[in-house]
Design goal:
Elements (H helix, E strand, L loop, with lengths): L7 E5 L9 H15 L4 E6 L15 E4 L2 E3 L2 E3 L3 H6 L5 E7 L4 H12 L3 E5 L13 H15 L2 E4 L2 H11 L6 E3 L21 E5 L8 H8 L7 E5 L5 H10 L5 E5 L3 H10 L2 E4 L8 H8 L4 E4 L14 E4 L4 H13 L1 H15 L4 H21 L11
């Protein structure tokens, strides 16, 4: 084997498009970028219900394994066996947003010495009845997965400091690579809000997105806005009930949207809202900025790297509906403030490019793989097929 041969990159992710989610879009973008460069890539993921009967959504480089969901976690029984049969020269790009998948990659690393890059999309938070188990899982299991990775990738400097401290990782082994934004998300000119401002949320309808905060912020002022919620998720019925209980007006659950349909929703909106309680680096925020939208969101890591309070939107305290409400009124109530923030959003979005991110990952793959070879692990990374 020579260093020039390069690695076969294997993206391992709990879900993959058409499953809706930011981590899934990132995995797809990086995999397609590598294929466009004529380089070897494989994706190992779960067989989601919306693709199980549709072969057109199952390209040959995407291998979907049978799975089931338990406590919002994808259990993929055949994943470890498939990892252990990976051919020589494999390097795993592990996308971390949920449990189970990281442990399988870690086990494959122990058994085959396959090197892996741990891409921490989201520091897993509690959800469902089993959420309390994370107090044990994160320090004892996830921490070990991260410390055993060749490199840990995060989105921001703040996240690097937090991950280094929380999991006992040398900051030199944590690489900051921001997400990019699809070049199709661009707004050509200046914006002005509609007479009844249009609010847009895009994301999964889950606990993490904290939509009740938005609903309580709209309590008493919902008739002055048109609010569109784009996405699907397990809390949809519960969230609709909350809207009814609060007697909110002009709130529409749109459902799923992709591609040109999604871009049109951004184009017709005035303000993007994201009341999340946890984020990594939300693609939807980058898309909103590229479309020239001011943003009202929560002041949490991931959001505050993209949204500069008072410049391209507002950061509000987590759990404070009145502050969220006032931010909406301030941004939509003053045309000069709105125009200034809209232009600032477009300028900031120019900093984020998928071409740049993909190039950085390609350099990282080469660096990790060559170091792996030099340390003499290549003889242990051989196929068992």
């Amino acid at each position: 084997m020579t260093l020039g041969a390069g690695p076969r990159v294997v993206h391992v992710t709990p879900h993959y498009p058409p499953f809706l989610g930011g981590a899934e879009k990132v995995a797809e973008t990086l995999a397609l970028s590598r294929r466009a460069r004529g380089l070897e890539v494989i994706v190992l993921t779960s067989l989601d219900r919306d693709v199980s009967g549709d072969r057109s959504r199952r390209p040959d480089f995407v291998q979907r394994l049978r799975s089931w969901e338990i406590a919002n976690t994808s259990i993929i029984p055949g994943l470890l066996g498939r990892l252990l049969r990976l051919p020589p020269r494999s390097l795993i790009h592990l996308h971390i947003a949920r449990a189970f998948v990281p442990e399988m990659v870690y086990a494959a690393h122990l058994l085959r010495r396959i090197p892996y890059v741990a891409h921490l999309h989201l520091d897993i938070g509690p959800s469902g009845r089993a959420g309390f188990m994370l107090h044990v899982y994160k320090p004892l299991i996830l921490g070990r997965v991260l410390r055993s990775a060749a490199v840990v990738v995060v989105f921001t400097d703040e996240q690097r400091s937090d991950v280094a401290s929380r999991y006992g990782i040398n900051p030199a082994r944590i690489r900051v690579i921001p997400n990019g934004v699809d070049e199709n998300f661009r707004y050509p000119g200046p914006r002005l809000p509609h007479p009844r401002p249009r609010l847009l949320f895009v994301g999964r309808l889950t606990v993490q997105k904290n939509l009740p905060l938005l609903f309580h912020a709209l309590d008493g002022i919902s008739d002055g806005f048109e609010t569109t919620l784009v996405g699907e998720g397990e809390l949809q019925d519960e969230l609709k009930a909350t809207v009814n209980d609060l007697h909110l007006q002009n709130v529409r659950f749109y459902g799923r949207a992709d591609g040109a349909e999604l871009r049109e929703l951004y184009r017709n909106a005035d303000v993007f809202v994201l009341p999340s309680e946890r984020e990594g680096m939300p693609l939807v925020l980058l898309e909103a900025l590229a479309m020239g939208l001011p943003v009202v969101t929560t002041d949490i890591p991931g959001n505050r790297e993209i949204i500069l309070h008072g410049q391209n939107g507002a950061l509000t305290p987590l759990g404070d509906p009145s502050a969220f409400r006032q931010a909406l009124l301030n941004i939509t109530g003053d045309p000069d403030t709105y125009r200034r923030m809209s232009e600032a959003s477009r300028r900031l979005a120019e900093k984020y490019s998928w071409e740049t991110a993909s190039t950085e990952f390609e350099r990282l793959y080469t660096e990790v793989f060559e170091l792996h070879i030099c340390r003499g692990h290549s003889g242990m990374n051989r196929s068992t097929e």
